[in-house]
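Input structure tokens:
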């Protein structure tokens, strides 16, 4: 999906902002907890949007279950987007698990294990 077109990028940014709010306020599925919408990629013809999400404080399996729940609610969310955005065509939403936050947390744990915080020592 090409995002190197200014209008595609603007639409993707707006979809990302609106979806973050809609998921937080409108989705009542218990599998959907605290969600971060990390990236949205909109196709050039605005027919499809890839939405990358991760659950904050969730294990990978729970995050993947959350993605399944969001894909189940994609039609509802698309309808809500259509009411809020002024687009001729609102893209079909496809949710994907984004492991970037989990990888970052894993790296932080590894760094902490190798180099523990030396805040109590005074520098030269």
């Amino acid at each position: 999906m090409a995002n190197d077109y200014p209008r595609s990028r603007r639409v993707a940014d707006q979809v990302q902002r609106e979806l973050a709010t809609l998921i937080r306020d409108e989705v009542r599925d218990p599998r959907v907890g605290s969600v971060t919408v990390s990236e949205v990629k909109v196709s050039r013809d605005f027919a499809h949007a890839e939405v990358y999400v991760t659950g904050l404080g969730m294990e990978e399996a729970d995050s993947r279950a959350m993605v399944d729940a969001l894909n189940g609610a994609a039609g509802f969310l698309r309808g809500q987007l259509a009411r809020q955005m002024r687009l001729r065509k609102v893209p079909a939403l496809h949710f994907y698990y984004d492991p970037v936050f989990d990888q970052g947390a894993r790296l932080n744990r590894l760094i902490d294990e190798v180099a523990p915080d030396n805040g109590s020592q005074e520098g030269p």
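Helices lie at 6-26, 60-72, 74-84, 100-114. The chain is about 50% helix and 20% strand.
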